[in-house]
Structures are given as structure tokens and as C-alpha cells.
Amino acid sequence: MGILSDDVVIISQSEKEGEPSVITINCPDKTGLGCDLCRILLFFGLNIVRGDVTTDGKWCYLVFWVIGKPNTRWNLLKMRLVEASPSFSWAFGISRYYLSDSESQPPKFPDLFLLKLACSDRTGLLYDVTEVLYKLEINIEKVKISTTPDGKVMDLFFVTDTRELLGTGKRREEVYEYLRDAIGDSMISYDIELVGSEITARSQASSSVAETLFSSDVLGEQPSGGLHTSSNVSISVDNSLSPAHTLIHITCQDHKGLLYDIMRTFKDFNIQISYGRFTIKRGRNCEIDLFIVQSDGRKILDSSKLNALVYRLRAELQQPLRVVMMNRGPDTELLVTNPVELSGKGRPQVFHDIALALKKINTCIFSVYIC
């Protein structure tokens, strides 16, 4: 018997602007579920100000207090959260959660499309395009943008569609209409075509610069340039408080996507959270208590595993993004790198936020490469 989606996710919107809305999720548990849910909240631009997580290893109960925006699409958010929960499969009689590794099917990767857009250049153009794609739930995987001396721009966006409809004429027409409204008469040409999997393979092999930046010791060697860092990170481990769990206590400064960064680290280490609490104190100081176990349900006693986990958490919290600025003659090159999940999913909305920041300081972008 399936679980009704209305029972899986309940959203209580705040009555006053600036006050948190409450999102309650009640569904079967799986390793990495917290990461998947926090990634969706981050994609929708929500700021998590408090969180509680409880699970017995089979069923979980999560509550997030979030600050939204006036234009937050709450109904769409609920749909995406329901889809991310294991119970979404149950609702259609597909108990994928209980399939063994030998019975489960390999994940199906979404189709990759090439969006080609030519238009006249102007300040803020790139942000306007990324804002449209964000609203339409089209994910940017790779970008190549060039500006000609006469002020013309050729944008090449390799994208995937969350709704998996970009192969239809109706969906492509919708994208065109939204882009036309945002860009206006400066649009010269527009086209979308399906590309082969070899493009994805090549793009995955071209990220050596990012790997070099993130392989350097966050506490030691650092690349030249400005880095987004925070030294106010304290992580302690306690194996004596609970007979069945390892306690991780974290205090740090809040930043966008903080809870996602923590949950992503645990997911990559295949660690389950049995109970967790996240709160923001005065001055954007955060306190996080997490009772965790390994995938076999036991507490972590291996000191090498604990040291590796603490080191990775500290790295993620001190430098969630690495930003380097370099002078290239008359131009300035901005290099931004961020880690991705082992599943290959990157941090959502990074390119969108960069374009917005550059638009706010009235800075023109004439060339972009994202891999």
C-alpha cells in the first residue's frame, strides 16, 4: 500500500515575512536522504535556520525551519521533496528501497542537451539567462561563452531537464518564450539539440584545475588569490555519551548551504545519522549535534576513519567554495571551484549566484568556461 504524498511532506508557510516556514518530512530512511533533501532546499534558495532529524534506521522524521522568498514555489518544492523520498517509489507500488544490490537497476542518467543562444551583449545578460533556466528547473552542467569584438555573445549551455521534457517541442517552445521575455530584442538565435554521452565523458575528464585546488591542504598549502575561508570551525567527537552512536559536535559560522555541505560529507562516507539537531545562535553562530553510525549500524571506533571524517568536515566548512582571482593583462580571471558528491551532483545554483554577484557590481562577463 502506497503512502500519500500529502502525508510525506507537510509545509506550513509562515504568516509574516522574515519568519521561518516549517517543512516536515515523514518517510522511510536511506543513507544520504538528508543530503538529497538539503540539496533541494538549497536549489530553491531556502535558508535553513533550524533542523531536527530522527530515525531508527528504517523510518525517519525530519523537520526544517526555513526562510523563504516572496516568490518561493512551495507547491513545486513539495513535489520535488516527495520525489526524493523513498516513499515516492512506494506510492506507485515500486519498493526499490528494499531491493538488494543484485536486483536493483543502475541509475538512469538524464539526457544531456545543448542550448545554443546568440544575442547582443549587455551587463547582467548572463544572470538573466541563468535565472530563466533556474525557474524552469533546467540544470546547467557545462558552459562555454564567448564575446566577439562587435559585442555579440555566443552561449553554449550543456543542460539537463529536471522535468525530463526538453525533448518535446512544447517544452522547447516554453524555454524560448521565457528567454525571449528576459532578453528581449537582443536575442539573435536560439536552438536546443540532444547531444551524445561522449560529451559528458569528456567534460568529466576536464576538471583537473578544480581537482588541483581541492587536493591542496586547506590548513597548509593554498593557491594564490582570495579564498572563501572560515577559521571559526570546531569539531569534537564523543564515543562515551551513547552506547550505540558516535556523537559529532560542530560549532561554526553559518554560510549558504551549510547543512547541505555537512550532509553531503556524511553521504560520501556512507554514514547514517540516527539523530541530529541544527540551530543558529546570535551572530550567525551555528551548533550542530549529530549521533551517527556506520552503514552496518555500529558506532565508529576506528580512529583513522574518525580522523578522515573530521578532516573532511573541517575542509568543507572552512572552504565550501574556493575563489581565486588572477590578472590576465587588461582582464581579470575569476576561478570558482566547489566539490561534488560521489554521485556526480554538484552544488546547486553556484553559477547563478556568481552571475548575480557580478551583475550587482556592474561587472561585464565576456568569456565563461564551466566544466
Automatic annotation (TrEMBL):
Keywords: Repeat. It holds the Pfam family ACT. Residues 114-197 form the ACT domain. It comes from the Eukaryota. The keyword Cytoplasm does not apply. InterPro entries: ACR1-12, ACR2/9/10_N, ACT-like_dom_sf, ACT_ACR9/10_C, ACT_dom. Binds amino acids. This is ACT domain-containing protein ACR. The lineage of its organism: Eukaryota, Viridiplantae, Streptophyta, Embryophyta, Tracheophyta.
